[in-house]
Amino acid sequence: MKAVTFSGGIHPSYNKDLSSAVTTRPLDPPEEIVIPLSQHIGAPARTCVEKGDEVLIGQPVGDAGGFVSSVIHSSVSGKVKGVEPRAGAVGTEVNSVVIENDGQDRTVDFSGLGDDWRSAETSELKDRIQQAGLVGMGGAAFPTHVKLSPPDDKPIDAVILNGAECEPYLTADHRLMLEHPADVITGLSIVMKILGASQGFVGVEVNKPDALEALREASADSGITVVPLQVKYPQGAEKQLIDACLKRQVPSGGLPMDVGVVVQNVGTAAAITDAVVRGRPLYERILTVTGAGVAEPANLVVRMGTPVAHAIDACGGVRGELGKLVLGGPMMGFAQYTDQVPVTKGTSGILLLEKSAVDTREPDPCIRCGRCARACPMRIIPADIAAFSARQMYERAEEYDALDCIECGSCAFGCPSRIGLVQHIRLAKAAIMAQRRKGN
Amino acid sequence: MRFASCTAQNNRDSDDACAASLHHLLKGQLMNILLIVILAMLTENFVLMKFLGICPFLGVSRRVSTALGMSMAVLFVMLVASVITYAVQRYLLTPLDLQYLQTIAFILVIAATVQLTEMAIQKLSPTLYQGLGIYLPLITTNCAVLGLAILNIQREYSLFEVIFYAAGAALGFGIALLLLAGLREKMETASVPQAFKGPAIALITAGILSLAFQGFSGLVPVN
Amino acid sequence: MTPVILPVIVLSGLGLVMAALLAVARKVFYVEVDERLEKLVDILPGANCGGCGFPGCSGYAAALVGGSAKPTICPPGGADLAEEIGSILGVEVEEVVPQVALVACAGNPQSAPERSTYIGISTCEAAHLTAGGFKSCTFGCLGLGSCAVACPFDAIVMTDNHLAVVIPELCNGCGNCVAACPRKIIKLVPAAEPVHVLCINPQKAKLVKAVCSVGCTGCKLCAKQSKRFAMTGALAQVDPTVPGEIPSHAPYACPQGTIFDSRRYKVLDWITMPACREEHEILTAEWKKAEKERKAAAKAKKAQKAKDVAREGVR
Lengths: 440, 223, 315
Prior knowledge:
- The structure holds three protein chains of three kinds.
- By secondary structure, chain A is an alpha/beta fold.
- Helices cover 27% and strands 20% of the residues of chain A.
- Chain A is built from 13 helices and 17 strands.
- Chain B is mainly alpha-helical.
């Protein structure tokens, strides 16, 4: 099968060999775990434990704060030290449950459906997924059960799993597909059953031939297609993935379900298998600790709430002079001001960049080369929107479809004038959304 | 002039009253009209080739929407004023041998037409009225309108031709205005050197536009 | 005579015809214009600052005539203008309290250091959107000057120590800066109010002290000095609805030096000149000493009195 792709996009240096051959290993949790009550898009969870309570692994510490919200579980057994604001991944303090680890790793009883999931009711499957606190594990952390509940007028006929892992440096999904291909395929089958979808795809970039092979073997006779994708960023963005796999274009301002598709990350699919088949809630995840600034890049299975510093120490600590600490990949990840931020459900990687990798030069004026427009996978004109944004002409920015921007960073990546195009567009989007809220 | 002789030829043929020549006549007339419109719109573009009406050209070319409104207003004024001035010249001034009153009489007619337009726009579209501002009454002194009226007389156009020449001139004005407005909207996000900001860069842009329009010269032979 | 009379007749005739035409058109296209509108546009300040919430002064005038706006909401015009508007519109005008903007943050880079290096667009909105800003205190002034750009009266100064300061004499209270500040640090306060708490961090003492040395910790010591200080959670604020004057020693009660008193210092001096704070600290120490002595004396007096009573009893 020929590798497929979308139009636009860029080819950054991937730097995946730093960690792609390193087998995942579990990371022992630290003495103290800090579990933020807001690890997802939507309402923060409501705390359901108090200071002094004994908790077990897998025991909920936060109840969903609404439909678009998520349950949060303890990742260690021990005593709750308090519920207080702690540093969160987005720069502001987040209300968090602090737990003292007793080191005994006592768990609640995990009772999964085993192979019976095939005969289970859809509602029960969905309920299990919701109770396991599943969110999208690619980075955005959108609650999974919401994605699995499309309105009745939007029938879903295809489910695509995103195994592209197009972000440079990251190898967590790669290792997962290689080490647990059966879990990924089972997860996809569960999602297809819930949505009543007839087609299932797993899209994997061709720079992971071993993962492609493993998935093909695991999906034999299941009716699921493993799609080889060209190596290009942002191949894993959902609209681009749908374009590549199904040649369907999501309309401007629309969602994948408008074209009958639901996209999930391969990590989410594996977690769905864990939740439904084994009854294990989402309290740990695979992530990549990588970059030139870390001594021994590795793929770790980390408990939620582990401070980033603990994971870095387990990989030999910082090497050289640290320039930037990023949660996620280099293109869409979030730079951090402290290494005390905890790993959350959406943390796909910890990237440590050297001082020399950080460009502190001031931007030059736009030379109208158009490289950003060619690179844009959403086919908008980043330079124009950024120029409007810089002059507070947000209405014009909206006319130029600023809201379609997926903030992938392809435009800024190739900009010869080093203009922070994404930041300008993000600013315009925030202003447009604020204006809309005011209007309503 | 080619089409003039063609018309003359057709006139002679029409004496024979044959269908083919009638067809010819019609074709000749259409050709004539088309050439007049192209002449007024492009080759003799009032703004960019004759440099008439520069005031509203720079004044209301900041946004495409107001430029469009202005073009419509000018179209209306040019059409009405041309017809009335044609009538005034033909049935009042020439018979009474008062051609020397041409300028003052025409200005009177144009001023009245502009006033009429202004009242109509104020009633029909207050936002456009606000957007056009001072430039609306200034159409009165818009030399393009007076220039058009006088050219009509000088060229000895028939009433039919006058209407199309006026329409063509107004369309040409609109094209120039919209082109500049589009460019200036784009220029809002350009980093123009401080000294060139505002009217300076607009004049430079207009100059380059004018140079481009020189390319149309020679498209239609002018007598 | 003909060469003179004929042209005159012709032109006048033409003029008359046109005049008649226009007279008819005037009737057809008649638009009612309220004469009060023009008067209002004339007396409004013409700064088009938008402080009233309408698009420019003419927009406000139209809203006034239409009856959808109050005459008191033009900040630069103040009470005088409100009265004039009232007389034109023929309505009663309630009293306007003149307001000025106040930047409620004094956390300079020494007291509230940067927690990270920010490389990006130099506006407060952009910096605030980027991981909550580069300043240790996520409530503090970022000092990139979005408010100063928004101010139509050039009343906001960006100081060398990365803070914004409103010059009260220049401020008309239009509130553009209030809207421009992404952290909502700027608020409108009564112009006559001399004392302000220069902090909006609502967090508890431990978290505030971790990020800023001049932030309000919610210790409530100021509230003991004057009823005008109201606590909203762990943040003290001067309550404009409570009448009375704040005693001049109230700022000395604040252990963090968060309370600013314009009766003693100009706000720009207070923010930019370390000497003001040094003097303030000396005065604070003196006041505390005096307060201690006063309390000791009162205690001694009370003890003496008790002793006297006891002695009386013995006798």
